[in-house]
Amino acid sequence: MNIKRRTAEPYKIKSVETLSMLSRTEREESLKRAGFNTFLIDSQDVYIDLLTDSGTTAMSDAQWGALMTGDEAYAGSKSWKQLEQAVRDVYGYEYVLPTHQGRGAENILSQLKIKEGDFVPGNMYFTTTRAHQEMNGATFVDIIIDEAHDPSINLPFKGNVDLTKLQALIDRVGANKIPYVCLAVTVNLAGGQPVSMQNMKDVYELCQSYSIDVMLDATRCVENAYFIKEREDGYGDRTIASILKEMLSYSDGCTMSGKKDCLVNIGGFLAMNDEELYIRSRELVVVYEGMPSYGGMAGRDMEAMAIGIREAVDDHYIEHRIGQVRHLGQQLLDAGIPIVQPIGGHAVFLDAKAFLPHLAQEKFPAQALAAALYVDSGVRSMERGIVSAGRDIQTGEHIKPNLELVRLTIPRRVYTNNHMDVVVDSILSLYEKRDWICGLKMVYEPPTLRFFNARFAPLAESGKLIDEENKVKQIS
Predict the structure, then answer these.
(1) Which of 24, 354, 377, 404 is the most buried (most CB within 10 A)?
(2) Is the pLDDT of residue 140 over 50?
(3) Which of 38, 57, 99, 127 is catalytic?
(4) Which HAMAP family does the UniProt entry name for this protein (predicted)?
(5) Average per-residue pLDDT in the chain?
């Protein structure tokens, strides 16, 4: 008999943290205080926190030990040398500048590369990345394949760039108006979808022919490398480390939020191969971050990141990482719950449009579903739809993305599969009473990155989010 053998976590638990388990009434009060925005819920009121995988990693014993060896010198820190060497060894870039986190690197890159009237093409936007590009005068242009905007289509590399779209943009505005292509690996807002090695190579070769740089958002590049190993011909017998090194060779640099695939709670970096850009970037690091030998991080944080960079390319670690996300996602698929397919690398994304078809997009169905999930079980997730997309900077109207999603983001090395089973049970329960979930209205809207601090109120006449008596009778 050929029985598929189950595997366990490639680590053992050395320390535990007690989780809060509030009553439903207490959760309803907590959500109301937060303005029905899961970002504003106190963490002490959360049972299973799937808000983000950013900075929520459980560090290893080696990383915790390294905290005690951190060199906190203001200049020339030994810990910085450890981090710089790890980036060179694992990622292959020549020049590295530390930042407090990924958006610090985005800020510096955008200021130095973008001029008013430029266009920055990318394989789907990300919130903070696009904000920095727009604040510096650029227009973001989505060049991802069309299939990425349809959650039901199952393709191995839905993060791929449509080369025809890229060429059309170059022909329309001219290469001198495109400072760089922003290539995300993986693509967060598409559902954690990867880019193939061949597509990365094709994009790089096309851009080289026009002297256009390719700058990666490498935040989850190790996850992308795993999908290449699993899905692309010729890579099945390669190590994750070797695949990653080849991936990044088809780029001119990257921004990195170390809070994801570098397995730490804070920090990031900007890396590149262009010495001139490095020198200019180094000057801005001093203005916005700190000395080029710490860039907003303590020495102990750099020590931990240097170790995390190397731990992340361990094949056993990343296999389990992707496997846990699939453990959650496959159960939902098997139960008929609408999610983005294929299951991505860092999260499972609920398709809120299909989950709550009675709610128009202007009633913020993904925001409502994330709030309802917290009420039902204390599981915190986040909206990735019309709220996150913001408003058109020209018209002021809501941007209405095709993807209206709730992101269930799995922190690295934090939860067991039993926790994922609890999440599944809650979602199945909500799906049975989905007609009772009402829409929301926005009662406070920040001018920028509104999803972080916006506040909402239920549209149901009863004032309840899950109105089991009145179903979907709502105030227009």
Answers:
(1) 404
(2) yes
(3) 127
(4) Tyr_phenol_lyase
(5) 96
* 74 flagged as catalytic: yes
Active site residue 451: yes
Q: Which of 217, 261, 351, 467 is catalytic?
A: 217
User: Does the active-site annotation cover 220?
Assistant: no
Does 384 qualify as catalytic in the annotation?
yes
85-119, pLDDT tens digit by residue?
999 999 999 999 999 999 999 999 999 999 999 99
Catalytic choice (95, 125, 250, 451): 451
* CA gap 260, 188 in Å, rounded: 12
Angle at 157 between CA 151 and CA 158, to 5 degrees: 30
- The reported pLDDT for the residue numbered 318 is 98
Amino acid 251 reads S
Q: Which of 260, 363, 380, 407 does the annotation list as catalytic?
A: 260
Determine whether 7 is an active site residue: no
What does the pLDDT average to over 393-413? 95
224 near 185, Cβ under 8 Å? Answer: yes
- The one catalytic residue among 91, 93, 126, 204: 126
Does the annotation count 69 as an active-site position? no
The residues, ordered by sequence, that sit 6+ positions from 103 with a Cβ below 8 Å of its Cβ are 128, 132, 257, 268
Q: What percent of the chain has pLDDT over 70?
A: 98
Domains of the chain: 24-46+315-458 (3.90.1150.10), 61-311 (3.40.640.10)
Task: Give dist(CA 147, CA 245) in Å, integer.
Answer: 28
Using alpha carbons, select from 391, 367, 390, 379 the residue that is nearest to residue 455: 367
pLDDT band at 62; cut points 50, 70, 90? very high
**Cβ neighbours of 20 (radius 10 Å):** 15
